[in-house]
Protein 1
Amino acid sequence: MSKKKSLLKEAPLLEVKNLETAFDIDGTYYNAVDNVSFKVKPRQIVGVVGESGCGKSVMSLSIMQLLPKGIGKVKSGEIIFDGISLEKMTEGQINKIRGKDVSMIFQEPMTSLNPVFTIGYQLQEVLFNHTKISKREARLKSIALLKSVGISRPEKIVDEYPHQLSGGMRQRVMIAIAIACQPKLLIADEPTTALDVTVQAQILELLKEIQEVNDMSVILITHDLGVVAEMCDEVIVMYAGKIVERTDVDTLFYNPKHPYTTLLLGAVPKMDEEEERLSSIKGIVPSLTNMPKVGCRFANRCPKAMPECFTTTPMLADVDQGHEVACLLYETSKPREGVK
Amino acid sequence: MLKYAFRRILGMIPMLFLISIIVFTLAKLMPGDSLSGEIDPRNTNPQYIQEMREKLGYNDPLPQQYFRWIGNFVQGDFGKSTRFKIEVSEVLSERLPNTIMLGLTSIIITYILAFFMGTYSGRKPYTFGDNLIGGLNYLGLSIPSFVAGVFAIFLFSFTLGWFPSNGSVDIGTTEGTLEYWLSRFHHVLLPALVLGLLSTASYTQFLRNDIIENSRKDFVRTARAKGTPERKIYNVHILRNSVIPLITFLGFDLVAIISGAIITETIFTYPGLGQLFLQSVGTRDYPVLMTLTMLFSFLTLVGNLIADILYGVVDPRIRLD
Ligand SMILES: Nc1ncnc2c1ncn2[C@@H]1O[C@H](COP(=O)(O)OP(=O)(O)OP(=O)(O)O)[C@@H](O)[C@H]1O
Ligand code: SF4
Ligand SMILES: [Mg+2]
């Protein structure tokens, strides 16, 4: 705990300010991520939770500048990584950072690797992109990397194709690719959702281990609050493209403030119904085209909703030191004079 | 792989046997027979014709005729052309190199054009260049090859005079010289273009669409996340996926070229197997016709086999065994 506390004073590694990401749907841009701000400090693991469709992946793709071209774009906001603004970079500039300083693991291990290239080729590519290294060295290094992510017989796997590997092994390969250049920040977008339960635990264990050894920061996106409790220092709760609560992990579990968080936590105990957990809250996340223009976006599902929740938009603000909430139950979230 | 190919080739034998029965039956069902070409025109005495029929075995029961034909056929004796009065194998071997030359040139042109147009359009979809290429391709797809052939002859041979309109080589050039080969190439270019028109258009559109589709795949996002430059993503990651189906089309091209050559060679009076086929229909040259049909069927089977084998070679996900 004392180590974590000392982190708080350090300059952030990543600072996202007022990020707005929009998708073109039939000619109009709709915000999938709306005015999101947060910081990630060195060596910190920040969890991002929220139901399906609330903008977690879009947010992480925005940081990596990996939004689908021509469809999604960062409309406004800043993404400052290690003192430099990523959102203003050209493709060539960001390519020097992607895979080297910031890496990402995706939700879909089955399709994230190129089916017609060997594991070795795809692993060595990231090394060739960012380091001066001979073919021989790259091969040896890729074997070592595969070994370090817990793949047995790496000398053999290195020459195999993705279809010869299981989902868990493919995700391990993705992790190996992501950590090959020892990045400062790893974004793991639901790295275990597509895997079966026993494999999930191993992968998370592995991530935690690598994080400690490499001293890197991690943004861990997950559906699973159990994982958050296990792994994270800080937690961001997202709903419908916005952050609704952000605090350290202990506070979140012992003193949740936002009704959505409370419902998420209340839904936790059913340990075996993995998929059901978050969806056990009544209703669904509004789609991009259906987003309420004013008021709290959670209002139609919130058990504590008040009439003003439908007309006043709550702001994300500190209720306590280091505990931000966006809910009209708290004075701090009510708009003040002169502030929209 | 070898075992697979061997098994497939073995499997062709009953197939070819069946085809031979069909070919034979069809030939017998067609009106008339090639007797008119066999008999001595100075002697049309019905008695004599009757004798000839008997002598040539045309009065034997059909199964007996069939087995005689197929028996000789598998020993490489395809019979005698009733029109040219020489061995069928000799007639074919005169024409075969021309068709091979036409087919090869056509395939090479098709693949070069389709590759460059397809990759350009796939990388820059919905731009002016893509729309232009797309428009030309739909034109190519919608014009039947005999119309395109006649038009090409009119424009490039008669009006502009760039290419010869018939034959396979200039008369008077000596075989083997550079001049001879240039002349052959000059003659084959226009028919090859017309013959490849349909495939060029469809392969270009196929490659374009496949590149666009692949560029949206998750593995492209992974490559971008690794810091791989855009150019390499297209030229290596996407292209390697998109050329796989294109390469396997090579096998089917064999089939397309044979059927296409029948029309194209006739329009360009190019002395190849396709032209021979149509001529043989006209002159009821059944020995040639039957041999050609067997050859075309055999090549179709081989083409399919080649397509499957190529798939196994270029796509690591396919295992042939
Ligand atoms: N390419 C796209 N085009 C249009 N809308 C999109 C696109 N990608 C995502 N969206 C929309 O953006 C919103 C947020 O999606 P996102 O994928 O970020 O959700 P998520 O929180 O990652 O959900 P999950 O837990 O299922 O991964 C959704 O409403 C989704 O429909
Ligand atoms: S603002 Fe109102 S509707 Fe929204 S979470 Fe708070 S109480 Fe519920
Ligand atoms: Mg997601």
Protein 2
Amino acid sequence: MSDLPDADEFIKIDHSTPSTGWMDTPAKIRPGMYCYASNYRSVEALGLPNARRWNPLDDDWQIPDNWQQIFLEGLQERLDKFRSLKIFMDICVRCGACADKCHYFIGTGDPKNMPVLRAELLRSVYRNDFTTAGKIFGKLAGARPLTLEVLKEIWYYLFQCSMCRRCSVFCPYGIDTAEITLLGRELMNLLGLNIDWIATPIANCYQTGNHLGIQPHAFKDMLDFFVEDIEEITGVNCEPQYNKKGADILFLTPSGDVFADPGTYTAMGYLILFQFLKEKYGLDVTWSTYASEGGNFGFFTSHEVMKRLNAKMYAEAKRLGVKWILGGECGHMWRVIHQYMDTMNGPADFMEVPVNPVTGTVFENASSTKLVHIAEFTADLIKNNKLDLDPSRNDNLSVTFHDSCNPSRGMGMLDEPRYVIQNVCNNFYDMPPSTIRENTFCCGSGAGLNAGEDMELRMAGGLPRANAVKHVHEKHGVNMLACICAVDRAALPDLMDYWVPGVDVIGLHELVGNAIVLPGEQERTMDLRMEPLPGMEDEADE
Amino acid sequence: MGLKAILQQKKKAIVKDWIDLVIDTYPGDSSKFMKSKGDRFANPVGSTISQGLDALFDGLLNGDSREKMMDMLDPVVRIRAVQDFAPSQAVFFIIYLKKLIREKLKKETKKDKIADELAELEFKIDELSLLGFDVYMGCKETLFSIKANQEKTKIYKAFKRAGLVTEVEEIGPEPGELNI
Ligand code: SF4
Ligand code: SF4
């Protein structure tokens, strides 16, 4: 051979499996994969521990000297309080059934994103300090002491889990890694180790009523603006009611629907639906400018913060004296309601079991929380023939549906949105079965990870979802990805821009708003985005 | 037999090595998974790499156009552009094809005719490697622009449409307050 150096030496491609086990392969915090540290002012506003400036890339995270004690005592407290945590720590047999089911593992190729290993990061500490085998046999029993390096590793991977629960579907023991992540993040919060994409929205929500910190007058200004646009498109005034005491129903939706595109068009769809029902059936719905957030980023922080934010919605319902609450298209809002609300703040006995006043349908499933999902509500209206619909107005759209993790896996809402879509538009194509319904792939940006600085994580984690969209895009010409979640509406456009250009994102009720024929409306030439309707290209120009 | 025919004959072995070379850049547990499953929905990284490299190999032999080659490179490079790789590591596999081909063609390359043809093919692989950088940069630019437009295209745009842009900044942290 030549005496020139081997080319491999320049590029340093690692062709071999690392010889060290996962415990001895320390985590490297990589830009693009983590979110910026929480702003100390937000942490302060919430009264959470250890508000200060810190940076995950610094060696010194500025945590209290007795941080190990705080962490381990916090873990002990939660093991006592949450039987689920104790069980999840003890019963994993490391069968690996969950290993390749996480979108972050599939997309990043990082083994520590295997759900089993993600949990093992914390479990190893649990074994070390809380089990006899771990205390005696140490590493042999899968135990390791809680060092600063270990803490950082746990933090890094807790914030690479979107709490989507896909792994739990495949675990024979039903171990729910999302629960482990939630409790793990609680422990991190005891040390002041939150991320800003979560801390600032919850501080805003706590103080002002919504994640963006928008004040009541601006909330109303935005809705006024939607009313103007709808009037231009339909000729009908859809002015909603605000803060009306004694209204039948309180409507709550994530603030993203009011303040961020393309959710804003979904909000226009709600307004059109409510106007139709008011005209035809006298439906009495009010919006609230105070409880102006359906979402709950507290869920990504701790049970306590989640409870605080959730309580505001019910306090407003009580203040207004409504019969029940209708909830807009949100993801984690539903997980909080469906899974936690009842034991946190419920049962909401001051309200009535929700009954659809138009159809008489009793929503038994919401008999305790008194909160009904709008997809369910609209599906019920369509099933009972109560809406006048012209699906051809959505004919330029070829639609597929992304099951958001929380409404689908978290509460079992699988058929209602599809039923609505198939009634309001003519071209619908589901993605492959292994990627939808209970098996749905997360958008890659859930659980507070929808920031800008962790874009590589979001794009890699969103790959399995995007890959399935690409399939129906190429096979059926799908150009619109529908969803019933505000985080999705914010996250999926980025995902599509990167992986499947040519596919846009739409909320279910934007499709509904396009299709509803309002009493007394003018001939529509534009859709809610003010783009020409199919066949109306010339009219819309004029 | 000319070079093209020989390569067509040995395609399976060469492409298999090529795929393994790329997949082995992932840690052990991950590469095992990526090699094991064929389902393109359960295992998009593994299947994109397998299909992509197979098609690229054919494209090289068939003299496909620059556009076509870039289209075939795109899915593979797009994935590696968001994973934990330096730019060189993301696209190294293209140029490494030269090495794999020489390994598999040890005997044949001695012949003059083949040697000339091989030199030509290798130049094409070099060119493809440069295209790989174009694709990689294109992916990174898309990422940067998504990052930069994040706030603007969503919240800001909605507020601007409504004529409410003035006070938006007030609610966020002041410049310098973010711990970045
Ligand atoms: S909950 Fe979702 S993101 Fe978290 S480990 Fe399981 S599959 Fe991955
Ligand atoms: S599937 Fe369940 S038991 Fe098996 S490794 Fe995963 S968490 Fe453990």
